[in-house]
Amino acid sequence: MVMLVSLYVQWRLKSKFEEYSQVGLSNGMSGKEIAETMLRESGIYDVRVVSVEGRLSDHYNPKDKTVNLSPDVFYGRSVAAAAVASHECGHAVQHAKSYAWLQFRSQMVPFLSIASQYMQWVILAGIFLINTTIIPLAIGVALFAATTLFSFITLPVEYDASNRALAWIKNNRIVNEREYVMSADALKWAARTYLVAAIGSLATLLYYVSILMGRRD
């Protein structure tokens, strides 16, 4: 069920961005120009805005302080480009203001980047060895619980970045009223992908826990 919902949300997200990518921004600004303006007006001068390959590959990298925008967003002068560019800058503002949830999330990344390489193998080994010992599965479940926690910590980070973006483009008249509604709709569907992912992770975690607890009983 969760997988079906996830596929639907992903489809809606792509269709929304396809639709809003065809709507030209009334002020004619590109995603790059919007991002640089938002950073500057937020008092941030040490973050670069760069173009990266891919589609919907946009992200903020706190390590090298770069707002990475896909070509469609970097060069685009559409409502979709405005929404995405300002959202990624929202993360840069979070970083500059030491937003607690972003800091917590960033602190988890080094551990999870290592754990994710071995987690599924540990869980698989734990299931095979469950009649002998529950230790491998318990370790695997603990690692998966950490990734699930990470998914839920990501939610306030993403929603807050969108709220910052929408407030800024509205208050600074980057978009008109019609374009604002479209921007909010696009970011709403983007946020829902993270929500569905978190719920899916929790469902999988509960499944593994049920296996573990069943063996302990």
Automatic annotation (TrEMBL):
The transmembrane residues are: 121-153, 189-209
Q: Would the keyword NAD turn up in this protein's UniProt record?
A: no
Gene source species: Dyadobacter luticola
Domain of life from the UniProt record: Bacteria
Entry annotated with the keyword Membrane: yes
InterPro entries per record: Zn_peptidase_2
Q: What is this protein called?
A: Zinc metallopeptidase
Record key words, sorted: Membrane, Transmembrane, Transmembrane helix
